[in-house]
Amino acid sequence: MRQLLGRNPIGLSDNGDYGRVLTSIGLLRPPGFPANGFLTLRFTYGDMPGGGYGSSLNPLLRLVTWVPRAFGAESFDIRWLAGVYAVLLGLLVWFVVRALPGRPVQVIGGILLVVITTDTAFVSYFGSFFSEPGSMLALLFVVGVLLRLRGRPAASPVLVAALVSSGLLLATVKTQNVVLGPLLAVGVLALRPRRLALPAAVLLLVVPLVYAGSQPSGLRQVNLYNAVFYTLLPRGDDPAGDLRALGMDPALARLSGTQAFQDNRRLQQPSFAAFARDGGQAKLVRFYASRPSRAVGLAVRGSRGAALARPLNLGNRARLVGTKPKEVACEQCLYSVPSRWLRPVAPILLPALYLGALVLAFARRRRASWLTDTLRFLTLGGMAEFAVALLGEGDYELAKHLFLFDVMTAFLVVFAVLALLERGVRQRRPAPSLQEV
């Protein structure tokens, strides 16, 4: 609360994406907007014409912005939204901690989760209209439910309903998260009874795919353009040859290094339009699969971008005396600062962390464990988010698009520590006496 609601609150300045969200919730940019690199605190009310970017976060945004208007407010202060996010964060961290087994694990887990989730790099998103806060809050909801499953095959109807609800919220916050729905669906199929598991899995599979298909096609074209022209072509020695391999006109090599928002007319280039229409994303995946060195280079850049834990091209402060454009705040950075220090070795540390978590998750498959479901979801989900972010839009605003991957990685660190703590406590327990036996 202190970071978000003080005299000089933190947040994130707009990168141009606010328009798609504001259209959906009945707000307008204030006069003089945007103030480049500065956090905008107040937005004016307007009509709600519909359209814009679909998200499971939109109902909450509409409610939070409607309440002040219903009480006569002439403008909306974004600190109202930040405060609501902060309250939900506290409740969901409590929800997760209460699911941890044993007081020592709860205390250590609670401290670690509070330190991570209140890091300025993460909560700065709360003072914005970006969808990233919805991703982190929904992820906490999912993790809390998975911890309550505790690796057991039989689940109550309440737990199944909670898992489906939380999973759908997470998978439909933004299209980048859609991949997490089918991942949860596969896990749900292992639950009993079947009469609950099967319809739950169908919902987790179908609803996110329908959601992804309902998004504006222009947004997918923008992402694909940036993945090719802003990311792929500048990193190769032969842009014209790369375009031929992708089935596009090699003359478009002149656009290497550009991004879609510089001129939307580039999306109408006949060669690119045909590429985007005829399975462009699949062609991009095949391109990297046939050129491992290019794929490794993309992954290395992605891991270093993830280590930043926040976008550095967006300001965290409002325009006040003494603040500078694009000023980066660090009110509480106990997690993000060490992460940034480790950036040079991130291409080694991140694969090692995920490999170790995978071994830990699947080594426990023969016996019930409170860690099993959570570790499997975080490891597989984190790797899926990493791949989708890199292949979906490449290097463009990489640190922002890897937000959920960063949160999942931080949670993996937490649960790795808790697993070691649990093991140490179990090993220190005295052997049972003969009378107890």
Please describe what this structure looks like:
By secondary structure, the protein is mainly α. The chain folds into two domains: 2-215 and 346-427, no CATH class; 217-345, no CATH class. 60% of the residues lie in helices and 2% in strands. The protein contains 20 helices and three strands. The protein has helices spanning 2-5, 18-25, 58-70, 78-98, 103-117, 120-123, 132-149, 157-171, 180-188, 194-214, 217-232, 239-246, 270-277, 280-289, 292-308, 336-341, 346-363, 372-393, 398-401, 403-428, and strands at 27-28, 42-45, 75-77. It has a three-stranded antiparallel sheet with strand order 1-2-3. The longest helix is centred in the C-terminal third of the chain and has 26 residues, at 403-428. It is globular, with a radius of gyration of 23 Å. It starts with a helix and ends in a 9-residue tail after the last helix. Mean pLDDT is 88; it is low at 430-437.
Strand arrangement, major sheet: 1-2-3
Count of alpha/pi helices: 20
Radius of gyration: 23 Å
How many domains, in number, for the residues? 2
Helix content: 55-70%
Mean pLDDT: 88
Query: What spatial form do the alpha-carbon principal axes imply?
Result: globular
* Structural class estimated from helices and strands: mainly alpha
Provide keyphrases for this structure:
mainly alpha; 2 domains; globular; disordered C terminus
Summarize, please.
This protein is mainly alpha-helical and 437 residues long.
List the helices and strands and how they pair.
Blueprint: H1 2-5, H2 18-25, E1 27-28, E2 42-45, H3 58-70, E3 75-77, H4 78-98, H5 103-117, H6 120-123, H7 132-149, H8 157-171, H9 180-188, H10 194-214, H11 217-232, H12 239-246, H13 270-277, H14 280-289, H15 292-308, H16 336-341, H17 346-363, H18 372-393, H19 398-401, H20 403-428
Antiparallel strand pairs: 1-2, 2-3
Helix pairs in contact: 4-5, 4-7, 5-20, 7-8, 7-20, 8-9, 8-10, 9-10, 9-18, 11-18, 17-18, 17-20, 18-20
